[in-house]
Amino acid sequence: xxxxxxxxxxxxxxVIGLVIIAxxxxxxxxxxxxxxxxxxxxxxxxxxxxxxxxxxxxKVDPDAKK
Length: 66
Fold this sequence. Notes:
The chain is an all-alpha fold. Helices cover about 45% and strands about 0% of the residues. The protein is built from two helices and no strands.
């Protein structure tokens, strides 16, 4: 499993995930569980939704292609 989530993307996923969880608790909604998914993908550095679109927010190492 190749990482496709960069460091800024990870931070944003964690912040947004925590906000969604907090709002879910505040409003007593199951939608807060979606925040757990963002925390998980931010933690492991891989997002399955990026695969079909060929997206990656990781920085490309110029020496890695040689």
